[in-house]
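thought: fold this chain, then report.
action: predict
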Amino acid sequence: MKRPDGKNAEKENNKPAVAAALRSRKTTAALYAASFLIPFLIFGFIFAFIGVYPFGDRQYLIYDGWQQYFPYMSDLWYRLRGEGSFMWSLLYGIGGNYLPLFAYNLASPLNLLLPFFPNGSIPELMALFTMIKLGFAGLFTAVFLKGMYKRIDILIPAFSASYALCAYTLGYYWNIMWLDTIAMLPIVVYGLYSLVKEGYFVMYTVALSVSVLFNFYLGLFVCIFAVMMFHVFYFTAAPSPGGEKRSPQSAAVKKTFFLFKENYLSRFALFALTSVLAAGIVAFLMLPAFLGLRNTSDMENPFPSSIYLFASFFDVFGNFIAFTPPTFVNGLPNLYCGMLPVMLSAVFIRSAEFKLREKAAYLAVIIFLILSCNVNVLTFIWSGFHVTNSLPYRFSFLVSFLTVAVAYSAYIRIEKPSAGDMTAMAAAAALLLICATLGAQSPKHAAAAAALSLAYIGLFALKARFRKNKTALTAVTAAVFFIMTIELAITAGMNITRENNTTDRMTFPYSYENVQNLLKMTEPEQNEFFRTEFANSQQFNQNAPAVYRYDGISVFASTTNVNTSRFLTGLGLPSWDAGNIFYYTETSPFTSVLLNHRYLISRPDGIRDDGLYWKPSGKSGDLSVFENTSFLPFGFTVGGAAADYAQDKKNPFLSQNDLFRRMTGLEGELFILMGPVNTRHKNYNVTEEDSGEYEFTLKCGEDEGVLAWDFQMPVDGLLFAYFDFNRSGEINVTKDGGLLQKTDIEKRFISMLGRFRKNEIISFSAEADTQEGRASVFAAYFDAELFAAGYEILSRNTMELTEFKETRVAGHIAAEKDGLLFTSIPYEKGWRARVDGEEAEIITVGGSMAALRLETGEHEIEFTYRSYGLPAGLLISVCSLAFFSVLIICGKQRKN
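observation:
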């Protein structure tokens, strides 16, 4: 239709609508930008305030951040540049499946940016990535709130930040690998809502898939949560308006419960199918990771035999109040997500705007999640049927997210707050403050939260008073926005600026340049393999091989193979009961032979061998490197009886003696156990149950005492000790009253005490305040002549390497007699071997180390590795992606 002047009248009439749509898009973009920037900038300002580089000389590396994630990301930097395999790594322990470690810790898409920056900037990148991920948590929550409730509101960024800066992220922000999935949760839930309400499944499938991919551990929580929220949405979602476009896969949502039930199976089938497809799409990584994790100690946790609560519910609910300190390592569940959201949750409960079934459904999920944070059996199930090692209630971010969602839905439905609404808000605040006061929270935090609650109630009273005055209403809303943001910033600042929340950028990693100089001095030749370690790697980092990039022994990773851990623990290396840590300390020369340990890096006072088996080889700064005079290469022949070796679970000296005997065929004891010549226990009754094993009870009326044993060297030589106490602490090793060393008795390991002369007295003593306990105290001197004879036997037939890579080892060997080729490969499914071109069975020594049976003569040996489950995972991913694509195409065709 044309106007008389020739212009299009219809186009003119559409101008106001187009302008309104443009303003709406601009407003939405501004809200999304604010939702990202609030958590991003709050964390950024806090990092700058505490002096994180480049604003100071501190760095964002605390707890597992420097023990695990920094080493992992430093190593990934090289692997992304083609320097290392994504299948197998020699930098974690004595070797292990890399894909589970990558899937658990490193699958964040931001990590793909690492190679574009210098390796030395990784601590700063970790801080930046944390800020970005929290920013996306805010942005994606805003997308969820706007999409779910179809409302553009100035408070969306504040509510979004309430989730992004909840106590969970404030307490666990240094677990950088979890933040991607936390950020993706709102998109998963929004996609699930679209699937249930309209049958649109693409967003849900993609979002769930990448959530599991980014971190499969938290992805498990998201999957469980999705099952709950499917039922919440299905039985509470309103029917689609008649004129709204509908998915071709969905039928109309009916109001009656009977018709709901009638359509339930088809909708649940779509949910189940797309959930399986989401898992299938990422099977290329998840399947080999899952199969690899079956080798970890976490798969062995027994189901709890009884049901109990972890804490008082006063403590639990008190953790909702503002300014509450979050749990960083151990403590109460992290539940805080802003004071206003928990207050508005009470409005959700009382408001007639919400149907009874809607309230019941949401509250049932929230209550179940809170119960899961305090009932041991529920926590055990949520955690993948295992007991977590610190960082409890790892699913509690779900409580915060759902609380924010419920609170925002209540906020947008009370255009004019009533007296009842404000009474409900006050009652919720009072209830939580009472719980906090009776529970574990500080009175000053409760007082501050009470003042904040009054401020929110006052603002909502003003909103009710001036609901017809647009200018005043805008001002009140802006004030609410301001106070919510300030509350979150103060809470974050109070907790992130706490003591010991950073490390010194100049001193960690310790003496990095000096270590690199020593590694260059000892660099292997082509196709040569050996291992290097620190005299006490725990002093540097339990993932020191990944930090400094050398083939070592130590590891700290949730994906550690428990069989490798048990083998090395059986030989006397220190480890944790959780089975995810073992590390090197100066130990038995025989252990060094078994592990191809050639070089030892030490501080000036760090080595106790006294030149018997370690000779100086170089120096840089305050560090020295020593070379093993009894080194053996990657593979060597041993007696066939070694295949039947099993560790002694109480005494690693007996384990070493047995394995040495089986490998060499020599009789005798490599370690000769000694009994104490004197005991000097004070205030304890001590009974020797077996040789070296004691039970002790504190004498009546005493509060503490001392346990002490004296040993006398029968010959000149090296002395070793092994302590096993059912308590933590240290044991003092002294000679002639002078302290030689303090040894940690919480981690059981063979400790090299040093070289002593005949008849010298060495004393072990430990102060204790426990009423009763048990202790194993073993001292043994080393038979150097027997070891020399055994070393000569083992060194006769060694494997000459012709190729050595992380996933392929080849070489040849001449065997003088039938026996075993022992290698330092810790066996996992995926390793295959060929002898003279023929497939050969790999057997294990001690349940861990790969070995081959060889007949007399010369042999060509080949080992190859491919992650177990990877081919099947790739096939599942391709098929799932293809089927998902077909579903999308069919949906479009049906729509057309």
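thought: worth noting. The CA atoms of residues 745 and 860 lie 46 Å apart.
final: tokens above.
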